[in-house]
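cache lookup: miss for this entity combination. No prior model stored, computing from scratch. Input as submitted by user K.M.:
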Amino acid sequence: MSRVVYVNGEFLPEKEAKISIFDRGFLFADGVYEVSTILDGKLVENQAHLDRLGRSMKELDMAPPCSMQEIEEAQQELLKRNPTQEGGLYLQVTRGAADRDFLYPDPSTKSSLVMFTQARPVIEAPSAKRGLSVIFQPDIRWQRRDIKTVALLAASMAKEAARAAGADDAWMIEDGKVTEGTSNNAYIITKDDVIVTRALSNKILHGITRKAVLALAKEEGLRVEERDFTPQEAKEAKEAFLTSASTFVTAVVKIDGQELGDGKPGPLTTRLREIYIDFARKSLS
Ligand code: PMP
């Protein structure tokens, strides 16, 4: 069965959906995106994703394609046309189509908005039960990682390097410290049960899941430190995990070839995943 996708105000079979070759998303990676997870047929933390989309567009002086309310209505209509119990709703805004020029086109140029759904297991994701292995890769991305742009080639390269090394993913290193995962925020839990993750700055994406998980951890009375950590600290950690809208809280059980503990998802990570899933269910819209 073919999906119905959304392109600039229209709902179309995916084979009929088209974007101009002059679209600046295609020519300059001049676009931003969000992925909201679908759980129980609804969207998780969607308002937070729309808020971050608004911020990304603002940081790039990109005109919104329509109002946020219209975007949300289109998301809901897309979900209706593609009933999905678990998966993701991908949404992308680009600066639109204009003759190729580095300078931004005339402000009258209409931004493009596309959306599609992807079905996949979320709660019973195989990676969550098993835990993931990560390797380290140099962070070669640009310096505005707080803006969620579609310029994801460096992340793809790091993920390919992980696959070539027989690992699931890569954590990226800059100036001797872990920045984040290729498509997730990175955490370690120290021997003293302190959850450590890098502080917010332009060096990492300000994860929607990160914000919720840190708040929930604090509510649980767990200790949280937002600071840089080294690859060596990571390899010596009691537990490690990553967060993203797509994976929620997922254990990391092997880092750079070194198994953490018994090589299985640890108790604190497992608890945090459960707590976040409860929270995600309450946030559905
Ligand atoms: N960092 C990067 C580089 C990402 O691509 C993602 C996924 N969007 C995250 C962190 C996690 O952010 P969120 O929890 O909002 O999905």
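stored under new cache key. The pocket of 4'-deoxy-4'-aminopyridoxal-5'-phosphate is lined by residues 180, 183-185, 205, 207-210, 243-245 (CB under 6 Å).
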